[in-house]
Amino acid sequence: MSKHVVLVEDETNIAEAIRFLLGREGWRVETLANGGNAAEVIRAAMPDLVMLDVMLPGKTGFEILAELRSDAALSDLPILMLTARGQNRDREMAEQAGVSRFMTKPFSNDEILTAVRELTDGRLDKAQSDA
User: Fold this and answer.
1) Contacting residues for 105 by C-beta, under 8 A, at least 6 apart
2) Can you name the CATH fold of 4-124?
């Protein structure tokens, strides 16, 4: 069974690049371009990892993060926050809200893969690429 990530990212080119990159590592990537119902989708999907943009239409990544961390079933879910805003204030807010990792854009493919591996205990599902 492949690993599952929910990616909440409104920039289509970034979402597609991450989908391709993780997909070739065996991940199933579900993308949302709007933060409005992201917490509900994540609750229903129970993914192995969530990747959140900070600036989203509907709800911000910070609002979604707060919703997820207040849900006992999702409080330990690894969450990688992605942002073009690399200010220390944003990083501190994310860390105080319980983010697992904070990454600024632009980032490299290696940075994303390393973060995903570390956040999921190195268990990238390589079944498809090893077949």
Assistant:
1) 14, 82, 83, 84
2) Rossmann fold (3.40.50)
